[in-house]
Amino acid sequence: DTEVTQTPKHLVMGMTNKKSLKCEQHMGHRAMYWYKQKAKKPPELMFVYSYEKLSINESVPSRFSPECPNSSLLNLHLHALQPEDSALYLCASSRGAESNQPQHFGDGTRLSIL
Amino acid sequence: RKEVEQDPGPFNVPEGATVAFNCTYSNSASQSFFWYRQDCRKEPKLLMSVYSSGNEDGRFTAQLNRASQYISLLIRDSKLSDSATYLCVVRMERGNEKLTFGTGTRLTIIP
Question: Residue A28 pLDDT more than 90?
Answer without folding.
Answer: yes
